[in-house]
Amino acid sequence: MPEHAGNLSKPTIAVSMGDPGGIGPEILVKALADRARRSSARFLIQGSTSAMQDAADQAGISPYWWQLPTGSNIAASASHDVVVFDHGGEGFPHAPSKDNGLLSHRYVLDAIEHCKGEADALVTAPISKEAWKLAKKARHPGHTELLGEQFKAKRVGMFFESPKLRVILATVHIPLLDIRNALTIGKIFDAIDLGNDACRQLGIAEPRIAVCGLNPHAGENGMMGDEETRLIQPAIEHAVRVGIDAKGPFPADTIFNQAVAGKFDLVVAMYHDQGLIPVKLLAWDQAVNVTCGLPVWRTSPDHGTAFDIAGKGKADEGSMAAAIDLAIRLARSESSADG
């Protein structure tokens, strides 16, 4: 954690605006238009004031932020709750583009620098993976991988928090056909362990964790694959040995219902869509993507850039508002634990 994080009556939150042609500027402007929310922390936003101004005009919101050129000294904005470090540009296309990819990638890197100094948590708006590819930044297929590298984290986890369901993924942004080769006992254990820690930070004293199988019917005793007995069961047994209440592997087509009913606090999914389909079905506008395993907490909306509605004032800011609120909550929780 940053050295100054012991005083979190008003934490500092670094924010990257996401793809300037997506809905990131709009949902950010709308979420922070709530005076109580923006006064509960100090926000350092890396982005474009032009994109934010356009979003504010579309929503009928008066600008409430202080603008500085990118690279400016943080101390110059000490008296303002919301500061935008402007990277310039205007008239951003509502589609993947090389220029937007370069900008959104830079926003994230500069926001990370805040987290290595004065910021206590990080909130990221949606980026376009296609735009990053056009900008030749595709070595990192998403925020999670980039953050892990930049913070030199030994392990990271993609965790989803919502009022109805919590999920963490054992594998992240990889093709479906590569999962069988990428999945290991260690990756599964790390997801269980990181998810257990995240639940504790969220106030769950003794998390109850359900682990999905990879195959239909969790393998049906080896009839539909051996990953359950060869990889998943050993990871669960190791988690139990170190004091984690983990059970499974369970068939993925039934275990989420049990978690929603309150039998489990967290579900460990083996791959992206296995875990994300139920989360987005049940809590599209409330779920938050959390990166575990970093020296600071990172949160993000659980959706993408939505280029099809960008610039039209139609975006729902619910998930971004939840991401901001959770970042503040986790930063304060971390400070209490450290203190």
Give a quick summary of the entry.
By secondary structure, the chain is an alpha/beta fold. It has helices at 24-32, 35-38, 49-59, 98-115, 129-134, 143-150, 179-182, 185-201, 227-241, 252-260, 272-283, 318-338; strands at residues 12-16, 42-47, 66-69, 82-86, 121-124, 157-161, 167-169, 208-212, 245-250, 266-269, 288-292, 297-301. A 12-stranded mixed β-sheet has the order 3-4-2-1-5-12-11-6-7-10-8-9, with helices on both faces.
What would your notes on this structure say?
With 339 residues, the protein is α/β, with parallel strands linked by helices. The chain folds into 2 domains: 1-153 and 294-339, 3-Layer(aba) Sandwich (Isopropylmalate Dehydrogenase); 155-292, Isopropylmalate Dehydrogenase. Helix content is 40%, strand content 17%. The protein is built from 12 helices and 12 strands. A 12-stranded mixed sheet has the order 3-4-2-1-5-12-11-6-7-10-8-9, sandwiched between helices. Helix 1 packs across helix 3, helix 1 (24-32) packs across helix 12 (318-338) and helix 8 (185-201) crosses helix 9. It starts with 11 loop residues before the first strand and ends with a helix.
Q: Gap between N and C termini, in Å?
A: 12 Å
Largest sheet: 12 strands, mixed
Number of structural units classed as domains: 2
Based on secondary structure, the structural category is: alpha/beta
| Number of helices, counting only DSSP H or I runs of 4 residues or more | 12
- The helix content, as a percent range, equals 25-40%
CATH class of the largest domain: Alpha Beta
Query: How many β-strand runs?
Result: 12
Side by side, the strands of the main sheet go 3-4-2-1-5-12-11-6-7-10-8-9
Mean pLDDT, as a whole number? 91
Instruction: Label the overall shape.
Output: globular
Rg computed from alpha carbons, rounded to a whole number of angstroms: 20 Å
The low-confidence parts are 1-8
Strand content: 15-25%
